[in-house]
Design brief:
Oligomer: single chain
Largest sheet: 2 strands, antiparallel
CATH class of the domain at 25-70 and 106-166: Mainly Alpha
Shape: elongated
Helix content: 55-70%
CATH topology of the domain at 25-70 and 106-166: Hypothetical Protein Ta1238, Chain: A
CATH superfamily of the domain at 25-70 and 106-166: Cobalamin adenosyltransferase-like
Length: 174
């Protein structure tokens, strides 16, 4: 039986696979992005378990987030078609929700609230990716994908409220 721990990271460094294998400080911005993507993936897993309607795209997105990481470190198969698939799903879900006439606050059904958390974590991951792209090559499709993904989570939150019979939480004017 192999052990989960290697003790090689105990000094604050870990191995990543860039053009060549490198050991980086765990504080490196590449590892920061990996952490943001990992947290988002965990939140998507929770959203899957909370959602009242089957959503195969969410499972697919979990795998695609690994492709985002691969694009940073080595190779990725993420493509424009993956971005288009998110846009298509946004358009499909948008047909089943009321027109947005005010700012929407996070909340409503539990699954909608979790989708809002996914959106916020996704935006943080996007900011980390943009910062990383200023020093390392990050394919443009990765930035498009992660940007569209946060839009998807916003629309999905509204959809989850709609299918749960819960009104969106609108910002109240003062």
């Amino acid at each position: 039986m192999s052990k989960i721990y290697t003790k090689k990271g105990d000094q604050g460094h870990t191995q990543v696979y860039l053009e060549k294998t490198e050991r980086l400080a765990k504080s490196d911005e590449i590892l920061q992005v990996y952490g943001e993507l990992d947290e988002l993936n965990c939140h998507i897993g929770l959203l899957i378990s909370l959602s009242k309607t089957p959503n195969p795209l969410l499972s697919s997105l979990q795998n695609q987030l690994f492709e985002v990481g691969f694009a940073i470190s080595a190779t990725s198969t993420l493509s424009e078609e993956d971005v288009q698939a998110i846009e298509t799903e946004i358009d499909r879900l948008s047909q089943d929700i009321p027109e947005q006439r005010s700012f929407i606050l996070p909340g409503g059904a539990v699954s909608a609230s979790q989708s809002h958390i996914c959106r916020a974590v996704c935006r943080r991951a996007e900011r980390a990716l943009v910062a990383l792209s200023e020093k390392h090559q990050v394919p443009a499709v990765i930035l498009q994908f992660i940007n569209r993904l946060s839009d998807y989570f916003f629309v999905l939150a509204r959809y989850e409220n709609a299918v749960s019979g819960v009104k969106d939480v609108e910002k109240v004017s003062r």
